[in-house]
Amino acid sequence: MHRFAVEWDNGHDSKEGVFVPRRDDDSRLNSLAGGRIFPGVHHLSRFEVEDQQDLVEMVVRDGKDSPLIDLEVHPANELPDTSIFSSLAESSDFFEAGCIGYSARPDSCLLDGLLLKVPDWKASALSVPKIRSRYFDNLELFPAGSITFDHAILMRDIPHEWHSEPQIQT
Questions:
Q1: Three-class SS of residue 92?
Q2: What is the distance between the alpha carbons of residues 170 and 168, in angstroms, rounded to a whole number?
Q3: What is the SS3 string spanning 19-63?
Q4: Which residues constitute the domain of residue 126?
Q5: Alpha-helical regions (H) of 3-161
Q6: 115-139 residue pLDDT tens
Q7: How many domains does the chain fold into?
Q8: From CA 122, how far away is CA 46, in angstroms rounded?
């Protein structure tokens, strides 16, 4: 849910991907197995989703029933004029090229890697009239004016696979 676009040098060339500060899942099995059987510690959370073709509302709650994310999105024809990307195609290409995500392990200098494989990558633009994030709205982490929301895209009913990637030492 929360992603930072990143680039790093692996000693041979430059790589692109995302840093995932926290992975949330509504599966008890995934939350128990994540970081043990497969990469990425997954926090058990409750996902409340209302998904209609012209509206998606989602609230993700942690174990204390406190909202981590609260959002409402609608289909859009293009990205907002304020986006750093000039088009949906440019954004989609960027995220397809960087579809590897690394997340921190508790009390460790290692990052777990997961690679998203999508044979038929297809994203659509969204307008976002409401978005709240306990993480990004935290003024101690992100002082007022230090970050802004850019845009959202959606991939719906897309076959995909997750693959482990080697850990990275920070």
A1: helix
A2: 6
A3: EECCEEECCHHHHHHECCCECCCEEECEEEEEEECCEEEEEEECC
A4: 4-169
A5: 28-33, 88-97
A6: 999 999 999 999 999 999 999 999 9
A7: 1
A8: 27
Residues 99 and 17: beta-carbon distance below 8 Å: yes
Structure tokens at 107: 């009390």
Across the chain, how many H-helices and E-strands are there?
2, 12
pLDDT lower than 50: segments of the chain? none
Identify the burial level of 43 via C-beta atoms within 10 angstroms of its C-beta, where 0-12 means exposed, 13-18 middle and 19 or more buried: middle
Please name the amino acid found at residue 48. Answer: E
- DSSP assigned state of 78: S
Tell which residue, 158, 159, 152, 146, has the closest CA to residue 69: 152
β-pairing, 100-104 vs 14-20, is parallel
> Quick one: tokens of 77?
């024809």
List the beta bridge partners of residue 126.
75, 152
CA angle, residues 95, 101, 102, in degrees to nearest 5: 150
Burial 108-145 (b: 16+ CB within 10 A, else e): eeebbbbebeeeebebebbeeeeeebeebeeeeeeeee
| pTM for this prediction | 0.84
Token pair of 101, please?
């995500």
The three-point CA angle 33-35-41 to 5° equals 95
